[in-house]
Amino acid sequence: MRELDAPARDVLAAQAIELPSWAFGNAGTRFKVFSTPGTPRTIQEKLSDAAQVHRLTGLAPTVALHIPWDLVSDYGELARYAQDLGVRLGTINSNTFQDDDYKLGSLTHTDERIRRKAIDHHLACVDVMDATGSQDLKIWLPDGTNYPGQGDIRGRQDRLADSLAQIYARLSDQQRLVLEYKIFEPYFYTMDVPDWGTSYAHVTALGERAFVCLDTGHHAPSTNIEFIVAQLLRLGRLGSFDFNSRFYADDDLIVGAADPFQLFRILFEVLRGGGFEAGSPVRFMLDQCHNIEDKIPGQIRSVLNVQEMTARALLVDQEALRAAQDAGDVLSANGLLMDAFYTDVRPALAGWREERGLPADPMAAYAASGYQRRIADERVGGTQSGWGA
Ligand code: AOS
Ligand code: ZN
Ligand code: ZN
Question: For residue 249, which of 8, 4, 30 has the smallest C-alpha distance?
Fold first, then answer.
């Protein structure tokens, strides 16, 4: 078995996976939102829970906020609060999907009053970024149509381009816009940003600080996601990942749970495309909901899954792979990839963690910490994440 060499260890040491604040709230399906004892009642409590994940894994130094689910009056103060807990505030996520005004569109709406309102919401999100020091504004646009003929597909694209340009113009030189695509839902005939190509077309029109966000749950079944990763890296426009797993649709389950091999293939393309190099534009985030499992261990398991598949990707003998590819040696090339994928890196990573003063087994350390019991006793009346609220 190949060892994790010095360059591989550098990649692991620098790995950072952003946690979504909404993963700590109760979530569910359209049928039922189950509540979990200890669910946070405030963003401060969500940050405290996220800090547990980082404390035990060293992998999750930042937390993404969602506006308006995480509204506070002073974001500078919230940033300091996070810092005291050992984490930082990360990506700011906008929301144009829970307001009656946006039933027929937000940034694409034909009614100028409503489109203006949606643009202004994003400008307010940039105000938050100024206060928190966040780098990324992430736009997941729920806009779309349900019936052929319902909307002017091209007109909607034109209005979207104009809205995005107004938002982009408000960003500082240090800030970025990432545009997430999704094949369907909440609308089922067209989505206004349904695929990476549409997102790419918009972000390239905006400028150098606009990128595509790839949510792993937002594709048709059997889409080759690593191909999209390779292409976007090649084009210099892969800005961020929303990691999660899907069995059927946008399931938002624990990343690496449904298809660890796919996660490995994606991370291998990230590695090959320079996505782990210093200065790369690629950021890694989770976008998950924990409907039935405890949220903090759910997040711990998630970041460990990403770390594990990164370690396996780092084990691929790239030199030998290139030689096999160039020689047209199909089976050796495939075998080299599979050898790395099938390598159990868990003992090596446990040792690696211990060297850094982290628990060898973060899941067990969390269970033994008593934190879950404490929050279950202390927090009464935990709120939903915003999903299903
Ligand atoms: C929705 O399907 C998207 O995955 C969003 O990225 C995300 O869940 C949302 O931005 C949270 O507000
Ligand atoms: Zn997402
Ligand atoms: Zn999603």
Answer: 30
Region of 58 (left: φ > 0; alpha: ψ -120 to 50; beta: rest) is left
**Predicted confidence (pLDDT) per residue in 50-78, tens digit:** 999 999 999 999 999 999 999 999 999 99
Strands (E), the chain: 19-20, 62-66, 88-93, 136-140, 144-145, 176-180, 190-191, 210-215, 238-243, 283-286
ipTM > 0.85, yes or no = yes
Q: Whose CA is nearest to atom 9 of ligand 1?
A: 140
Determine the average pLDDT of the residues in 273-285. 98
**Where do the domains of the chain lie?**
14-314+357-378
Q: Which atom belonging to ligand 1 lies closest to the Cα atom of 138?
A: 10
Cα–Cα distance between 23 and 300 in angstroms, integer?
11
Report field, pTM of the whole predicted structure over 0.95: yes
Question: By C-alpha distance, which of 268, 274, 279 is closest to 227?
Answer: 268
Q: What residue owns the CA closest to ligand 1's atom 6?
A: 140
Backbone angles phi, psi at 349, to 5 degrees: -70, -35
pLDDT band at 36 (very low <50, low <70, confident <90, very high): confident
**In angstroms, rounded to a whole number, what is the distance separating the alpha carbons of residues 191 and 202?**
14
Which backbone phi and psi does 188 adopt, to 5 degrees? -120, -10
Q: Are 310 and 15 in contact (CB under 8 A)?
A: yes
Can you tell me the mean pLDDT for 96-109?
A: 98
Residue 176 near residue 135, CB atoms below 8 Å:
yes
> What b/e string do you get for 229-261 counting C-beta neighbours within 10 Å, with b at 16 or more?
bbbbbeeebbbbbbbbbbeeebbbbbbbbbbbe
**CATH superfamily entry for domain 14-314+357-378:** Divalent-metal-dependent TIM barrel enzymes (3.20.20.150)
Question: How many CA atoms, within 13 angstroms, populate the side-chain half-sphere of residue 209?
Answer: 16
Nearest-CA residue for atom 8 of ligand 1:
287
User: Model confidence over 8-35: pLDDT tens digits?
Assistant: 999 999 999 999 999 999 999 989 999 8
**Which amino acid would we find at residue 336?**
L
Which ligand minimizes its atom distance to the CA of 93?
1
